[in-house]
Amino acid sequence: MKRRKILILCIDAGSHDYLAASDIPNIKKLADAGFYQHANAVIPSVTNVNNVSIATGTFPDTHGITSNYYVDRKTGKGEFIEDNRFLLAPTLFEVAKNTKFADKTALFVTKQKLLRILESGTDIAVAAEEPPSEYVDAVGHVEPIYSCEINWWLLRAVRYALQTYNPELVYCSTTDWVQHKYAPQDELSQQHMAELDRIIGEIVDDNPNREIYITADHGMMDKTFALDPGRILRQHSIPAISIPIIKDRYVVHHGNLGGAAYVFLNNRSDIEQAVRTLLNTTGIEEVHSAEDAARIFRLHPNRIGDIFVLTDKDTVFGELEVASESISVRSHGSRHESYVPIIGYNSPWSATDFEYNLDVGRLFLESLH
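Structure (tokenized):
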């Protein structure tokens, strides 16, 4: 019996509209030979939450990562989530090693923060942002994080590792600078997808029997209006702050403006008034108490704010100098960016087995038991 070998590729912001607008013959061949499923991302639809969900096969109520940024409720201090101190569930790599599924596991990511969050259990761990010299020597110089080329380099690095080390389990995640800056129909956007597709074709030619799954962590949409929920509440005499869930160090991507936020109240007794105030604010589509949010979206109850808010399709949340303002940015985080593709090739499962992007990881884990 042949040993299963798996490649999971998360194209950051690689939603249906980007695939449909681009010339991607190799990805289409995979879908034609396997399946193409319209699935859901985890909400909030941001990078950390969804990559960790896929790479652990669990929802945030299990793995504990509910944001790009963590606020300690006791001290009020915040910090970026950039390592595995906050991770509560084992990675696919750890389980694959512990169950003897894999002799070698590999993680390839563009962003260094994802490497530090997910690297437990890996034999090979490469971040294009700070690449190992072996991979620079093998596949060339790396362009900056804010470029198309860094994602192309990452897939070439995956191809090199497959040729050289042939790990049984490989997880790869790109970055979404291109999608934050360019719509699906823009020339650079289409060039970005076409080159990813070309390299994917080479990987498939090298590894025709490998199981391959291609999905996304979220989509991307144009935004024209920004709100600061904390400032809005303070204007209504409700002491509060809000943190956009997208908040991280990669501000050139999105300016820390995203479609979901956690609101932290000074006084929990204000929650009913705060919910009513936010529900009456143009641009806010959903307002949930912490208890409801944890239940509805399967979020870890100790890792979220007192209130969880989601925008409409045109709006983002940020930490602003005013309560609201007109802006122009492409971003994500809300329900409107939570619909993603799953493409499966050489898979033992069918399209209907996949409801969420994290099911790629979940079904793999279930198959090990």
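Residues 187-206 form the longest helix (20 residues). The CA atoms of residues 199 and 205 lie 10 Å apart.
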